[in-house]
Amino acid sequence: MKKIVALSLMLSTTAVVADTFTFISPQKPGAGTSQWTDIVVKELQKHMPNDTLKVRYFPGARDIPAINAFQDELRFDNNNIVVSHGGNGVSFLQEPTAKYQYGDWDSVGMMNLNIINAKTKGIEYPLNKVTFAATSGRVPDAMAMTLLLCGPNKSIEQYKDCFKDKVKWIKGMKNGERRIAFKRGELNADRENPAAYKKHILPNKDKELWFHHGLLQKDGSHADDPNFPGYQLEILFEKKWGVKPEGRFYNAYKLVKSFRDSLQKAMWVNKGNPNRQKLVDALTKMSQDPASIKAIQKKVGKYEWIIGDKGNAQRDTLMTFVSEQALKDLVKFSDIALDVNSKVKEELYK
Question: Which of 35, 55, 250, 309 is the most exposed place for a label (fewest CB within 10 A)?
Fold first, then answer.
């Protein structure tokens, strides 16, 4: 009898042992990914009442240091979760300083998100030159506006010349600076993730939606965003130019936008982490809780949750988009048009 009581006490004690989980955001507080992390962690905490969830803000150049640190050492702590964003997806494809490997991680969950581009009302492109800040993760936006402004059937060099003629690509601005500059009219275009768009752009009556990139589907296509219907790049391109976008430049754009947007807000742990299932279960409960979803959608919009193994499958699908030609064209445009420190990562397609 004493043994049974002791065993019951031991099991009860084990059941209430609490963990402290740290969600690592690669940005400072208030930045786009940190905003999303704060929102989700607050709601996730409600479904992990015996645990403590905290956010560690880990900013650095082009938002890469935190992700490299997770790859190198932080992932081996089973209570660490990294929150990667779309800029990290762009860097993974082309930047030599990005040393991380998504294949070494397991997905906890992600939202299948989008990036929304806005412009100042009354501005007409290409009559007015686009003025746009070149902060992290904006290669897909530069390529999308190039397609819209320059039309079909051009070489990478011709698209570069057209971009240089029609867009002023302004380097050196921090996120706070470019938001203020857009609000004041010093920039006439800007972009945000859905949560930051609602916070920073939507309240400004002199700003309007320009275009968005669409939502990745399981078959590799992109669908219109029901939160911003009718403004998908492909829809606007065909309306303006009379044909659907296609060809090498479009393929390079589709590659980089797919990595940027579908991995835009994703939570990862080290492969084989024993705490992963606990986190996945809690995230699943959160995604099915009307109160939590209402709170998240109020800040972010209505977007699909991709949880657990489905997140790994999303990553694996993205890797099938990688081709030697698309990577080379992406790097070439980034080099000659955007002055992005990039290289062709042969290990991604060989």
Answer: 309
Pair 122, 217 in one domain = yes
What pLDDT was estimated at residue 350? 83
pTM: 0.86
Q: pLDDT tens digits for 335-349? A: 999 998 889 999 998
Range of the domain at 217: 116-259+322-348
HSE-CB for 118 with a 13 A CA cutoff: 27
d(CA 193, CA 265): 9
193 and 337 both lie in a single domain: yes
How far apart, in whole angstroms, are the C-alpha atoms of residue 137 and residue 90?
A: 6
Rg of the chain over all Cα atoms, to the nearest angstrom = 21
Question: In terms of domains, do 221 and 184 share one?
Answer: yes
Query: What's the rounded Cα separation, in Å, for the pair 20 and 140?
Result: 37
Which pLDDT tens digit goes with each residue over 94-115? Answer: 999 999 999 999 999 999 889 9
- Has residue 9 got a pLDDT over 60? no
How many domains are contained in the chain?
Answer: 2
